UniProtKB/TrEMBL annotation:
InterPro entries: ClpP/crotonase-like_dom_sf (IPR029045), Membrane_assoc_protease (IPR052165), NA-bd_OB-fold (IPR012340), NfeD-like_C (IPR002810), NfeD1b_N (IPR056738), NfeD_membrane (IPR056739). The keyword Signal applies. This is Nodulation protein NfeD. Keywords: Membrane, Signal, Transmembrane, Transmembrane helix. Residues 251-361 form the NfeD integral membrane domain. Residues 380-436 form the NfeD-like C-terminal domain. It comes from Streptomyces xantholiticus. Coiled coil: none annotated. It is a multi-pass membrane protein. The lineage of its organism: Bacteria, Bacillati, Actinomycetota, Actinomycetes, Kitasatosporales.
Amino acid sequence: MPQTRSPVLIRRLTHLLLLALACLLAAPSISAAQSPSTVLATRVDGTITPVVADHLRQGLRTAEQDRHAAYVIELDTPGGLLQSTREIVQDFLASEVPVVVYVAPPGARAASAGAYIAMAAHLAAMAPGTHIGAGTPVTGQGEEASDKVVSDAAAFAVSIAEERGRSTRFAEDMVRKGTAVPDQEAVRMDVVDLVAPSRDVLLTELDGRRVIVGPADAPHEVVLRTAGAQVVEHDLGFFGELRQLLASPELAFLFLSIGTLALIYELASPGMGLGGVTGAILLVLGFVALSVLPFNVGGLLLLALAAALFVAEVLTPGVGIFAAGGTVSLVFAGVLLFRGELGVDPAVLWPTAVVVGGGSLLAGRLAWRARRAPATTGHEGLVGREVVVRRVDPRTGTGQVLLEGAWWTARGRDAPIVEGEHVRVVDVEGLDLIVEGAGPEGGRETEQEAGP
């Protein structure tokens, strides 16, 4: 009897040991699977610019390097630059990390460029009360672009929709007809994937969904694990916010134009240096804006030519030829300065050019008058001043006068001076004033000004 039970007991013990060993080996993977995942999140508000494109590209790299479960972009935009939008879409389509675009908060919109970006995401969601669409491209002056540009944008939108399995009909209509739809209708039309009232609810709803990530030549499937995920914020930062604020053609043009005018006024009438400092700061901000925006070298050269003509107006003032030429050059600079759909609004361009041109003309007149005015400082500024002789030394024939808060030695040019006499300064020799009689009236006024 003991001999028959022994093999059975040994087999049971062996099974228990194997089961325990399997549990030990599986423990690390189980704990790893149960560990909370992380999600990288950022917020995009306002116009889509090269600053936003760079920020989102950096976020994708961070999400890939840190192995985040997804990259969530909360979006609220009226649109932006088509070139920047194309760069963002290209990055999304090749991303190794699931990209989720969430149009939020309630009342937000993904209009124009924002619609392209939302449709290019692996998963798109909207908060209640939001809308998406109206992707017709416009020029820098707000006018509808040419048929060629519209057709190109429509093909771009349709290709995005086909790649992500979204409604191609809506993609084309939003470009050609300017169609826009609210959140619930966007879900029914297969424009976006779901509606979620908050980011936490969105992450819970996305958990377990399967998406295809990676470039077209090496796609692979990823299962989202986002329920209860820890959210890591990815912000623009102070300098990013500053660059985004300056990414405006109108601001760039204003800073460069007004900065030039401030330097011209400093050149025309040097003083405390306030104009020079202000002009330098505005020019630096203008060039920072240019570093963000795509610009033409020809427009920049015209801007430099305008500045040179304005300076010439200050140095050699005449009938305003240089000021007029600078104004015309400044207008053409504003028209040609930026590439693509960017442009300076005429409501800003024309008044700025007229103000800067008129300001340079006025600065030239001020400089001309300053050069012709008599000197008011140094020894030359003392000539012509009238004073009263206070004391006279009978041995030398010189007297003492109080002028500009200091005592001076005065000598008569043609005749000795007398104490109490009103005299006028006609020359300065070293530290001595050469004077002549001025009559009682002028001297009395000077005596009151000079003090008792």
